[in-house]
Amino acid sequence: MNFVSTRGNVSKIGFIDTVLMGLANDGGLLVPEKIPQIPAEKLDAMSNLTYQELAYEIFSYYVDGEIPEKELKELIEKSYAAFRHPEVTPVQKLKDNMYVLELFHGPTFAFKDIALQFLGNLYSYVSKKTGESIHILGATSGDTGASAIEGVRGKEGIRICILHPHGKVSKVQELQMTTVDDKSVLNLAIKGTFDDGQRIIKELFADVDFKNKYHMRAINSINFVRIMAQTVYYFYSYFQVTKEADVKTVNFSVPTGNFGDIFAGYLAKKMGLPIGKLIVATNENNILEDFIHDGVYKPGEFRSTFSPSMDIQVASNFERYLFYLLEEDPKAVSEVMEKFNSEGKIVVSKELLHKVQEDFAAYGVKGEECLQTISTYNLETSYLLDPHTACGVAAYEKCNAPSEICVTLATAHPAKFNESIERCDIQQTFPEQISQLSNKPQYLEVVEADKAEVVRHLEKLFSFTAK
Ligand SMILES: *Cc1c(COP(=O)(O)O)cnc(C)c1O
């Protein structure tokens, strides 16, 4: 299995090099040269596997022997042993044609743990093999930071710096990231938005000399491993639901920010999983909704919402999708991205828009509607949705036909977003791991959203030598 850049200017590389490169050195994103095809008989055979066994089967297509079987299995076992549910990602039926896929049973109560527990263990494995230190740099809208820190803390040879938008994450998200007392963890609270943080890290990763000098590694969904690990639960939930419901295809409604999670669904579909519609659920930061309706992708003004992890305007992974939309033509992708950088928007033709709409539906959920959905479901089904999942559920209500079955991805536990839950006049009980956070001291530095200032802090972190 080889990986190539969406912009075509990186020579083919294997799985481990893809993990380490993160952002492609030409500024594009890495994708598999050929998407593995899983035939229907193989899918049938996979349908009774445990989550871990399924992860092994799917990862094997991409890892392609670069990690010996026994070691890959151990990495997977270790990663998912940290989850509180034996099924890792169980599905719950809320209505006749509607399920939620609970992705929040990991250590930080959001779906990011599914990929980042594995990526943390993988980095540690690679560091041990090569003797190289791993320096992680990431930007977060709230959940990735906590999850990445949890995935690597205490692991030898790894240091991590996370940029989060100061004052724009939930209290629990902030506490999860900043209460880790560890010299190899640095939290920078930048005075700006997630998009500012993401822009800074993308600029730093695009500086190949800097990246190599400091062994800088990515944990954001620019890293293909994130996408790969997230395809597994599409397969897993599809198998669970089709055992119960007599259907061949299943729709998925996906709360979307950076287009990472939903791209994983698109990849699963391209691998052969019979997915019907992929429903892009956004909040008021709804450029992806606009794109799917009109073919115009144009970042607008940033808005703070009840679902802060989706408060993103520039969706990094969108470029991966463009690559497939433009028939895997890296020249065409480069042209479109250049135009995007100079003109601030992407416009696709009617024919291409038609193609987009064959795979995707979209709905942007307004704040009031998000809260209303939480209240209604709490009353009617006694199930407490977190505000991101509520966007997914509201989009399911809008975009799913009554005869179709839909799985909505429950991307976080409601306890992480009590600010929004309280507005619905709902009192929730907190898991012990969350309620104990408020007693701990916090470690963070507030900085300007400025590349040079971030670099100064990074150099300090990287020059510190662990004993
Ligand atoms: C990150 C996140 C999302 C958005 O996922 P993307 O892969 O960025 O589209 C949605 N919900 C929650 C709770 C998240 O943490």
Mean pLDDT: 96
Kindly provide the name of the CATH class of the domain at 91-109 and 225-423: Alpha Beta
**What profile does the largest beta sheet have?**
6 strands, mixed
Q: Give the helix proportion (percent range).
A: 40-55%
Categorize the overall geometry: globular
N→C terminal distance: 38 Å
Question: Structural class of the secondary elements?
Answer: alpha/beta
Spans with pLDDT under 50 lasting ≥5 residues? none
Q: Report the C-alpha radius of gyration, rounded.
A: 21 Å
- Tally the helices: 20
The number of strands is: 15
Describe the structure.
This protein has 467 residues and is an alpha/beta fold. It has a domain at 91-109 and 225-423: Rossmann fold (3-Layer(aba) Sandwich), CATH 3.40.50.1100. It has 20 helices and 15 strands. It has helices at residues 15-21, 40-46, 51-63, 69-81, 112-130, 143-152, 171-178, 194-206, 208-213, 224-244, 260-270, 287-294, 318-325, 330-343, 350-359, 367-381, 387-399, 418-422, 432-435, 451-463, and strands at 3-5, 30-32, 91-95, 98-102, 134-139, 158-165, 185-191, 216-218, 250-255, 275-282, 296-297, 346-347, 360-364, 406-410, 445-448. The strands form 4 sheets. The chain has a 6-stranded mixed sheet, sandwiched between helices. The protein has a 5-stranded parallel sheet with strand order 8-5-6-7-15, with helices on both faces. Strand 3 (91-95) and strand 4 (98-102) form a beta hairpin. The longest helix is centred in the middle third of the chain and has 21 residues, at 224-244. The two termini are 38 Å apart. The chain binds pyridoxal-5'-phosphate (PLP).
